[in-house]
Amino acid sequence: MVKKSKLVCGVGVNDADYAVRKSETAVENGKKVCRRIWSCPFYVKWTGVLVRCYSEKFIRKYPTYEGCYVCDEWLSFSNFKNWMEQQDWEGKDLDKDILYPDNKIYSPETCVFVSQAVNKFLLDGVKIRGDWPTGVCWNKQKNKFMAYISAGYRKSNHLGYFLCPEEAHAAWLSAKRIQAKELAEIQTDPRVAKALVDRYLNYEEDIQTPGCIYLNHLKQSLGRTLTKKEIQMLMQKYIRGVPVEKVLEEME
């Protein structure tokens, strides 16, 4: 007989009619040790969803999950299990964002299982940006902006060097669109294939990051395009935290 358990993460009901975990006892160095030898894969996925939405510790570590929640139907383990059994799930990750970008709810209508390759490929678009747009960094050795694709389904690709961050970001987006089409062609779920292509075909990003704002302010104040040498000099000042106003005084 399966014991009645408390709520999982304070909200989930484990209504399984079987033991979702199995353990065995062994003796090591004269002491009894309990080892888990099996966990129900459906239960593991279900508890993973609940943790992402309702574990304060998890959300503190991964704040992008703030505000996410599970539909009422999936608060019962048996309902989630029944849905998962009908999906192509083995070796795949549960994703709530690819079909509906910026989605906050885990539900049968919004979620789909995707390969790890697809999951990694999508990381570029959701990373927390720094001083420059996605796919862009300043290369000190070359004194130019470098475009690259990271966390993709392939190894990191270097896309070239550019004089301005906007051009570097455009190179990243162009490469991302090409790879999205390649990845879409090998998907078995047509919804995932379409979502991959659509995501980067319609991709929009506010590229006014701190670094871009700094350079654009200088361009507008000077009323002209910055030269290669000026950009190199200004990047050194930006890295050192020199205010725009002081830089303008020096350039006048």
Helix-strand blueprint:
Elements: E1 21-28, E2 31-39, H1 41-54, H2 56-61, E3 69-70, H3 77-84, E4 93-95, E5 105-106, E6 112-114, H4 116-121, E7 136-139, E8 144-149, E9 157-162, H5 165-184, H6 190-201, H7 210-222, H8 228-240, H9 244-251
Parallel strand pairs: 3-5
Antiparallel strand pairs: 1-2, 4-6, 7-8, 8-9
Helix pairs in contact: 5-6
Written account of the structure:
With 252 residues, the protein is of the alpha+beta class. It has helices spanning 41-54, 56-61, 77-84, 116-121, 165-184, 190-201, 210-222, 228-240, 244-251; strands at 21-28, 31-39, 69-70, 93-95, 105-106, 112-114, 136-139, 144-149, 157-162. It starts with 20 loop residues before the first strand and ends with a helix.
- Shape by Cα distribution: elongated
Q: How many DSSP H or I helices?
A: 9
Mean pLDDT: 89
Structural category: alpha+beta
- β-strand percent reads 15-25%
Residue share in helix? 25-40%
Main sheet summary: 3 strands, antiparallel
- Rg calc: 25 Å
Read across the widest sheet, the strand sequence of neighbours is 7-8-9
SSE succession: EEHHEHEEEHEEEHHHHH
Distance between the termini: 83 Å
Note poorly predicted spans.
none
Number of strands: 9
Compact description:
By secondary structure, the chain is an alpha+beta fold. The chain has 9 helices and 9 strands.
Features:
9 helices, 9 strands, two-stranded antiparallel ribbon, alpha+beta, three-stranded antiparallel beta sheet
